[in-house]
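Before a colleague's protein record goes any further, I have to sign it off. My question to you is simply how this chain folds and whether the tokens agree. I do not need a full report, just your reasoning and any doubts. This is what I was given:
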Amino acid sequence: MRHIFAVTILVAAMSGWSALSADEPLTVSIYPTVAVARGEAHLRIVVERNDQNRALSWEVDGPGYYRSSTAQLEGADAPRNWFFAVKDLTPGNYVVRATLKRNNNSESVASTQMRVLGSGAN
């Protein structure tokens, strides 16, 4: 039963995520966009395949909460989709950012927002 629930959430989350358009080198989305305190959220980052891609960084920044990570990319051979989970979220408004760095020192940034409600919020 637990696995069915997890699969259902994953399918629902992915259906709400948009595809990367031709003029966007990077997109970031988060599900849910409104979560409950101490819960978790799932990030999806889609990276355009490009030989110049060298590093992907992401960060989740909120009140009393910060998580980030960086992955090295191997140009066009790197995965297109990246998935991350953040847990134990505290109440407040969050900014979620992804940054793509290239070998020519240029970068692209994509961001979105989410809100975490306290346990007594309606």
Observations:
- The radius of gyration is 15 Å.
- The first strand starts at residue 26 and ends at 31.
- The domain at 2-117 is CATH 2.60.40.10 (Immunoglobulin-like).
- Residues 1-22 have pLDDT under 50 and may be disordered.
